[in-house]
Amino acid sequence: MAGNSNEPHKSLRTLFETANSQRHSLDSIPNPSSSVYQSQLQTAIRNFQQCQNLTECLSIFSPNETEDDISSNSLQYLLTNHYLGDLLLKDSLNRRKDVLQSSRVAYERYLKTLDSYDMLSKSDSKLYQRYLSSSDDFTLLSQSDATARRNTKIARYKQEQELKLKLEYLARVPLALQHDDAASREIYLAEIQLCAHNTFHALDIIGQELKIISLMPQTSPAPQPEDLAEDYRQRNGRHNKDDTYFDRLDPPISQLVNKGKAGPILSKDGKPLKPFTLLDSRQRMQNGVFRQDHALPTMTIDEYLAEEKRRGGMVDGSGQTSTGAQDVNEDDLDRADAETMKAREWDEFVESNPKGSGNTLNRG
For residue 131, which of 144, 114, 146 has the smallest C-alpha distance? Predict the structure, then answer.
């Protein structure tokens, strides 16, 4: 390894421990979208980015080395890119597409480093080669074969459980053995394998989410203050004199009143240019300020009845009605005999012409 200075190496260890402690402290915050969570998340991201930059400056990892050439204390710095990718996925302040792409770059750096040291397992190495061949279409599970998809899920679940059990077992090593270089190295290697397993799962999710984002309609950028001011002027009809474009569908009131012939009423000499009528609209508006909001009656009921009689719309009860019964004079015998004869003739007609006798069309 190229890093021989103790002081920079010590500052890297301190920075990595601080960033890792901040990463663990995020689990105690219940709401990931809160400002407190996002603030601590950004701080942890910056610290891990500084760790990554400092690791490259110190040349702790070199492509010419093997896994055995890495010291046990330096193995933990291999996890920097994986932790950085995990934290970037939780960022909700920046644009989602940029967050996913940044996280994928960090995961790719992590797998590339492990592959250069030949630290990937056989199954993970095959997945990494498949990812390099088509990173945009990479999926862990088969989309066509349901049996293969089920077997892959079971195999990866068992592999993940084995790595977790191994890491938990090594974490329960007595304190006296934790200072052993071989025990510490085995713990770091187990965690590296578990993180590599989780990295492929994260890359699969990132690829699916990026495909969904690519299918979403493009949103227009937010309008600038100048555009808002111009739009306000257009909506209120405040255009420049030289601007002939006008997007209002309804013309001004002056054009509607004057049938499109807008202009001054009087000339500079005081001569009328077009006919006009002086109205007392100003006085009527002033009188109607404190009036009721409903229409008031203009005449009394008696006045209305008198007007209706004058127009002939009503008839009083003093005239002779067409349906009223005529008064019969009991002393007029001739009239009484005539009425009696008329009634008898009607009775004889009814008897000789029964009801329905004249209807000859509907007879069977």
Answer: 114
Full DSSP string of 300-348: -HHHHHHHHHHTT----TTSPPSSSPPPP-TT-HHHHHHHHHHHHHHHH
Contacts of 44 (CB under 8 A, 6+ apart): 19, 22, 23, 26, 87
Helix, strand or coil, per DSSP, at residue 272: strand
Q: pLDDT tens, 22-62?
A: 888 988 888 888 889 999 999 999 999 999 999 888 888 88
CA dist 296 to 44, 289, 293, 299, 302, Å? 76, 15, 9, 9, 16
Residue pair 70/63 in contact (Cβ under 8 Å)? The answer is no
Q: What is 156-206 written as a DSSP string?
A: HHHHHHHHHHHHHHHHTS-HHHHT-HHHHHHHHHHHHHHHHHHHHHHHHHH
pTM of the model: 0.55
Length of the chain: 364
How many distinct helices (H) and strands (E) make up the chain?
13, 0
Please list, in sequence order, all residues whose beta carbon lies within 8 angstroms of the beta carbon of residue 223, skipping any fewer than 6 positions away: 231
Of all residues in the chain, what percent carry a pLDDT higher than 70? 73
